[in-house]
Amino acid sequence: MADPKGFMTTPREEYPRRPVEERVRDWNEVYVPRALLPIINRQADRCMDCGIPFCHDACPLGNLIPEWNDLVSRDDWRAASDRLHATNNFPEFTGRLCPAPCEAGCVLAINQPAVTIKNVEVAIADRAWEDGFTPPRPPDRLSGRTVAVIGSGPTGLAAAQQLTRAGHTVAVYERADRIGGLLRYGIPAFKMEKRHLDRRLEQMRAEGTKFRTSTAVGTDIRAADLKARYDAVILAIGATAWRELDVPGRELAGIHQAMQYLPLADRVCEGDLEVSPLSAAGKHVVIVGGGDTGADCLGTAVRERAASVTQLDIYAQPEAERDEDVEPWPTYPKIYRLSAAHEEAGVLGTAPAADADARLFAASTLRFTGDADGHVRSLHLVEVDERRRPVPDSGRTLPADLVLLALGFSGPDRHDGLLDQLDLELNPRGTIARDPDFATNVPGVYAAGDAARGQSLIVWAIAEGRAVAAAVDRALSGASRLPAPIGPYDRPMKV
C-alpha cells in the first residue's frame, strides 16, 4: 500500500457530475470530463491493502482491486491496466454501469465511506485507451474449431473475446442492426456513451471475432442449421421477457414497456430517428418500477422535456445507512441511493406530487383510466404497508399521458422460436437449465448470462461470459487456460 495512513487522512471524493441544468440539455455522460484524474491517486491511496480483501468476494469477476489501487497510487497506469484487464474484459463498461457491490464489501466500509473502487476502475480503463495500453490481442494460431455466440450483450461479447483469443473462430449473431445488446439499445447514452462500446468492438474485430447483425436465430436462421455449422453454440440471449402489470386499463394506448421506450431514445442518439415515436415531450409521465431501468426512463424523460415525471416504487423508502442486523457487511445493502437521474428530477422539480427525487415509495398501481379515444390519462394508486397491503384512505390519482412499465424480466424471450427449435430444457422460473459446465441438455449447446442465471448485474454477465468461454474451450481442446471466475450456480453474498 502506497500510503499506510491514506484511509485515515483522505476523505472519500467521488467523480463530480456536471451541473443538472447543463447535462439535461444533452445526452452526454453526466460526469465532468477528465475531472477524475486529479483526485484518483489520492482516492486509490485510501485502499487498506487488507489481508483478506472482501471486495474480491463481493465482485464475481474477482477483480484484483488492492493491486491496481496500489499501482494507480504510484502512477503506474500500464501495470494497473494489465491487472484490471486480467479479470475484466470491459472495465470501461463496468466502471460506468455497475452499482459497485465491491464497495459494499470494502473492509473500510465497516465504519467509514468505502474506497471509490468504481471510480478508480473507470479511470484506469479510460487512461489505458488514451495511452494505447489496450491493443488487439489476436491469437498466435487458430485451433480449427468454430463457435457461434448468439447474443451480443456483455455476456456474449466477453465469451466471444475470450474464445477468439484462445484461437477459436468465433461468430457473434445479433438480431438487432447493431452489436451491443442492452449496452447499445437499453442503456441511455448519458450513463455510457456508445463510443466506448464501438471502440471495444473495433478491438474485437481486429482480433478476429466476426459479427453478424440483423440475424435472428430461430427465424432468419433455423437453430438446428446454425448448430450444424459450428462445433459449439453459446446462448447469451439475455432475459428479455418483460413482466406485465395486470390491472384494469392496461390495454389503453400510451402504456408501454420500458424496453420499448428506451431503445428508441438510443436510436435518436445514433441518428436513426429525429424524434422518438414514444417521446415524453410535453407529457405527464409515470414510471411503474423503482429499479435501475425505471431510473433510466426517468433520466430519459427529463431530457425529452416531459411536463412531469413520477416514479413509483412498491417498496418503502430505504434507510440512509445499512441495517447491520438485517443486511450485515459485506453484503450489498438496500439503502437510499440518489442516482444522477433522481438528482436531476429533484433539482428540476419534475414530480410535484412526489418526494424530492421524483419517487413515490410504498406505492402500488390499482388501475388506469383514459379518455374517449382510449388513451391513458390517469393512474390510480394506493399506499401499501410492508406486506403490500393497501393502507386505508391512501388512494391517489396522478395525471398520466405516458406510462412506462419497468418491472423487470422473467427469462429469455421465446417468440423467435430459438428455445423451442433446440428443445431446450428450462428451469421452473423460465431460465435455461444447464449443468456445472454451463452445458444445456442439447450436446454442444451452452447457456450463459441472464438467459440462464436470470436478471442480474453487468459484472455477473461478464463473469458468466468468461466462465462459459473456459468451459467451451475445455470441451473443444481437452483443457483450458482461460479463467473461470464463477460457476453456474454461484450467487451473490446474501444473509
From TrEMBL:
One of its GO terms (biological process) is glutamate biosynthetic process. GO terms for molecular function: iron-sulfur cluster binding; metal ion binding; oxidoreductase activity, acting on the CH-NH2 group of donors, NAD or NADP as acceptor. This is Oxidoreductase. Keywords: Amino-acid biosynthesis, Glutamate biosynthesis, Iron, Iron-sulfur, Metal-binding, Oxidoreductase. It comes from Streptomyces albiflavescens. Pfam families: Fer4_20, Pyr_redox_2. Pathway: Amino-acid biosynthesis. It comes from the Bacteria. Residues 36-69 form the 4Fe-4S ferredoxin-type domain. NCBIfam families: GOGAT_sm_gam.
